[in-house]
Design goal:
alpha+beta; Zincin-like; 2 domains; three-stranded antiparallel sheet; two-stranded antiparallel sheet; 7 strands; globular; Peptidase_M1_pepN; hydrolase
Amino acid sequence: PDVLARFTTRIVADKARYPFLLSNGNRIGQGELADGRHWVQWQDPFPKPCYLFALVAGDFDVLRDSFTTRSGRKVALELFVDRGNLDRADWAMTSLKNSMKWDETRFGLEYDL
C-alpha cells in the first residue's frame, strides 16, 4: 500500500457487445469509432495501490439516483447490475446514500469525486 499511482484509463470495445465501459475515477471523455466500437476515458485523481484498480465492460441495467452533499453539491449515483436484476438494486442504492451521509455526519467527510 505504500506504492501509489494515479490512473488514467482509456477503454475501447465493441459497443454492441460491451455498451458499458467502467473504471475508477471520473469519466473525462467518450466517443464513437467508425468500426462500431466506442471508447471511454477515466481519470482517478487520487493515488492508490494498483490492487484497487478496476475495469468492467459489459451489458447491464443501471439504477440512477443522486445524493446532495452537506455543502449542496449534487452527486450523480449509478449502480450497474446484471440484466434483469434492476428490481434487486434499491437496497444497494439506499445503503450507498446512507453510507455517504454517515461519512459526512460521523467523520465530516464530504464525497470528493
